[in-house]
Specification:
It is a single chain. By secondary structure, the protein is an alpha/beta fold. The chain has 2 domains: 2-124 and 303-332, Quinone Oxidoreductase, Chain A, domain 1; 128-279, NAD(P)-binding Rossmann-like Domain (Rossmann fold), CATH 3.40.50.720. It has 9 helices and 15 strands. The strands form 3 sheets. Strands 3, 4, 5, 6, 7, 14 and 15 form a 7-stranded mixed beta sheet that branches. Strands 10-9-8-11-12-13 form a 6-stranded parallel beta sheet, with helices on both faces. A two-stranded antiparallel sheet has the order 1-2. The two termini are 17 Å apart. The mean pLDDT is 97. It binds NADP nicotinamide-adenine-dinucleotide phosphate. NADP nicotinamide-adenine-dinucleotide phosphate binds at residues 47-49, 128-129, 132, 153, 155-159, 177-179, 182, 222-223, 244-245, 247-248, 275-277, 320-321, 323, 325, 329.
Length: 334
């Protein structure tokens, strides 16, 4: 028998979750049955969308069950195999995160080819966050020559990739993030043209107008709320908005207030389109090709914030809502 510690959902939080909403438990794993493998996780991802799964309100993914181990993207190593398709030492990606080890059918994991990248990049820059930035900018917003691009939540996993893709394609980029360190990262390392520290401005709409007097053509929204209103107020006619996420609302204890500036969508003929990346996985091969070329040319930078040990997974998750990460938030296991 092998022991594995795992994180279970204890309560459905209202408002900002706390460490008390999670519990750490230990389970024992037998040898894998026929067709199964045993995997020891090395990296796990925490992501803002998981907040929606802690609630039982209707969502595009089912809620986490109470008292049961949570789920999420993870990378691990096969330690024991009872299936010919995988052998000990193989790296695999799965949705069996939030636990140190697991047994599962071999068909439920994907053998990983890291293409020379560190394995954990497959949870960040080369994984779902990177793909989300790529799809949102190029396919949802339909980036066109000369567009001025505004990205919110820009120092995070998705946002930092959206800024870089827009810069690689030759666009002027305006970004928001919280705090001096993130502002410096975006300006000095990613080459973003104008960065607003939204935590220090009293009027975000005015700050954006000052940064881009001629307005924005594209808005990549990770934040919603006041950011979306500022973007609406500063949009050029025929502007396109890729609505990727609205993290400022995820912990609202009651229904968030509606936008004050939505009428601008009418008067300026704006196109606002939301998207869920799961519906665009067909674009993954194109993204992987472009990313490989950008990486080979030394044009992609990434940061990650790493907490260590399964017991730190709730803190890593809660840190997303306090801005504690630059780039991808990860938990290193083992
Ligand atoms: N549509 C899709 O399929 C899809 C897929 C992946 C992610 N997403 C969405 O994309 C967004 C970014 O996700 P990510 O994984 O890259 O997370 P992330 O940006 O790496 O981490 C979250 C960041 O959000 C910022 N934040 C937290 N609360 C905020 C608030 N009240 N107001 C403004 N900023 C706040 C914090 O940065 P600061 O320090 O700058 O505040 C924090 O570091 C999220 O909205 C997520 O739900 C959507």
């Amino acid at each position: 028998m092998v022991e594995s510690r795992e994180i279970r959902l204890k309560n459905r939080p209202v408002g900002m979750p706390t460490a008390d909403d999670f519990e750490l438990a230990t389970v024992e794993l037998a040898k894998p049955d026929e067709g199964q493998i045993q995997v020891r996780n090395i990296w796990m991802s925490v992501d803002p969308y998981m907040r929606g799964r802690m609630s039982d309100a209707p969502n595009y993914v089912p809620p986490f069950a109470l008292g049961v181990v949570m789920q999420g993207d993870a990378i691990g190593e096969v330690v024991s195999s009872n299936d010919p398709s995988l052998k000990p030492g193989d790296l695999v990606q799965s949705m069996y995160g939030w636990r140190e080890a697991f047994n599962a059918p071999a068909t439920k994991v994907r053998k990983l080819d890291t293409h020379g990248l560190p394995a954990e990049a497959l949870l960040g820059v080369a994984g779902v966050p990177g793909l989300t930035a790529y799809v949102g900018l190029l396919h949802i917003a339909g980036l066109r020559e000369g567009d001025i691009v505004f990205v919110s939540g820009a120092a995070g996993a998705v946002g930092s990739m959206a800024c870089q893709i827009a810069k690689l394609k030759g666009h002027k980029v305006i970004a928001t993030a919280g705090g001096a360190a993130k502002t410096a990262f975006l300006k000095n390392e990613l080459g973003v043209d104008e960065v607003i520290d939204y935590k220090t401005v009293t009027d975000l709409t005015a700050a954006l107008a000052k940064a881009v007097p001629d307005g924005i053509d594209v808005y990549f929204d990770n934040v919603g709320g006041e950011h979306l209103d500022a973007a609406l107020a500063n949009a050029k006619t025929l502007g396109r908005f890729a609505l990727c996420g609205m993290i400022s609302d995820y912990n609202a204890a009651s229904q968030p207030n509606g936008s004050r500036n939505l009428f601008m969508a009418v008067t300026r003929s704006l196109r606002l389109q939301g998207f869920v990346i799961l519906n665009h996985m067909n674009l993954q091969p194109a993204f992987a090709r472009d990313l490989a070329a950008w990486h080979a040319a030394g044009k992609i930078k990434w940061r990650q914030t790493v907490l260590h040990g399964i017991e730190q997974a709730p803190n890593a998750f809660l840190g997303l809502f306090k801005g504690e990460n630059t780039g991808k938030m990860l938990v290193k296991l083992g």
